[in-house]
Design brief:
This protein is of the alpha+beta class and 625 residues long. It contains 17 helices and 27 strands.
Amino acid sequence: MPSASALPGGPETPAGMPVPGATEPPPGIMIGLPGDPQTATLPPGYLPVPPAPRRRRRWPWVAGAVALLLVLGAVGVPLYQRLTRATPTEQVQAALLALRHAPAIRLTGESITPEGATQRLALSLDGKRAYGKAQDAAGSADVLVQHGITYLRGDRSWWRTVDSTTALYLADHWSTQTSGLSVDPTKLTPAALAKYLGKGLRAIADPETHAVPAGARYPQTLGGTAVSPYRLPNGSVVFVTADTPYRLVGIDRGPGMVDGGYLDLTVATLTKGAFGKAANKYAGGLGDADPKEPAHYDASYHNDKVGECDPYSCTLSALVTADSGSTGKTGHAIGVFTSDENGKHIIGTCVAKLPSIKPGHSGRTSCTTTSSAWTRWVMGAHNGSHYWFWLVVFDPGLAGDHPTQAVTLLTSGISVENMYSDGSPLTQSEDLLGMADHLIAVGGWKGSAAVSAAMSISDAGALGVLQPLVMADRVALDPDTFPDWFGTAQLPAAIAAKERAAAGSRKLALGSWTDPDGTIVKADLIDVSAKATVTTGQVATTSRTRTDIEHAADRARKGAVPDGFGRQLRITASPRSALYWSSAKDVAAGLRAAGLTPAMLHGIRRIRVVTGFGTATLTPNQLHK
């Protein structure tokens, strides 16, 4: 074995002993390895600062990651929302569930009857009660549902239009007679609406049970609220809030119409307290509900000479019978002496006060004529000839007590027999009687034309609109053409006349008007004050928007207008059209979207469009795209 001294590094040295021949390093801290030329010895107490590690440049990678996250957020979040968003059916179902559990709701909107008459509605309902107001072209009525019974309190104009024979005694009284109310409020409660709209709506595979987008023609906002319009399996379109929590905002074609037709409504939620307070206030006046219907009177008459008569006077009598109605209002009877059996040639008239008659009883009424017509007839060649006596009673509780008006009517060419035996409504309506009397006494109409005009206005549902205007001499009617021209189709012209009279027009004419130069102007409405002819029209459905307005413009251009006059259109958007849901500021865009251009309206100075949410007045130039 070699000796230890022969091994590399020398002999083994005990620990802590110096190596022979080695140089001892100075005191301090040795950095490095012994024998390494880079080794350095630092003084005692000196701690070296290591060099800073070299940093790698990572900021491009961070910026890229942030950009990637932004891109993923812009794309991924909406994608996630679309993937997790409730389906249209689920949105509608959630909205209907909220509706069903609402403490109370407020509905506002418009109905349209099969005949085309419109009615504005504002109703508040909970599960059992309802209150609100209905308004048609003529007047308005308060509505109340209490203990399952619907009550109505209409003003005079409301009843004039609905049933002129009730206007005198029902006006401003609560009544269970709900004639004219277009909806049944009991079918518009929160639960009833939810049931109707949810019928056939199922989130199953069959697409016919789904709610689907209704189309771009329906607005995406209602009253400032973003909405999604969806068509339901039953054909209705509902407007649901675009964001959660989903709730119902509007209904296109709702339930509850009495005689068919169309109903559009907006929906809002009410608190139970607010609803109850207002409902109790409405119900406070029910004490005067259902005034008793006035009595109808009948009178016997004789066609033989009766009583003691001389050339200067004649007194005759007849038996008057009242039915079971109220006889609280007494009036007068009108006696008419005629020289012919048909009651056409009047030779004397008289007025007598009706006696007090109990319901279901009779009383005799005497009447004496001292008219010059009687004297002339007796003293003339007819002395001793046969004559007839008629006693006509105008039901005082229905037609009021206006004997002078009745005499004017009976001496203006109306056959006494026809009016009396046929039970003409003129004898049962104060407003019809007053209208006919005004046309005869003030307008110089013949009696038959005046009665015909009054009846045609009443039959068209426009008595409440036109009677006040005619009586105030704001609207002129043509006696030669009006009764044959005016009907239900001309009701919008009457409404336009009412609007313009309210706006200050003092001279209006319906149907035709002759200008000072003798030119006959024919139009639905002639506004002489504003120098305009107005043609009325209606947008019936969404698909007919352009066609219906073009048709109205064609009719307007066919009529000649005097110098200085301009042609105008008044168009009403039916609830059956998507245009109905447009606000005034959106109408021009809706007409442009329907394809209307200024060229299609050439010759038209102005077009006025009435929707369910406002009225817009445009010029054709505003339809430029």
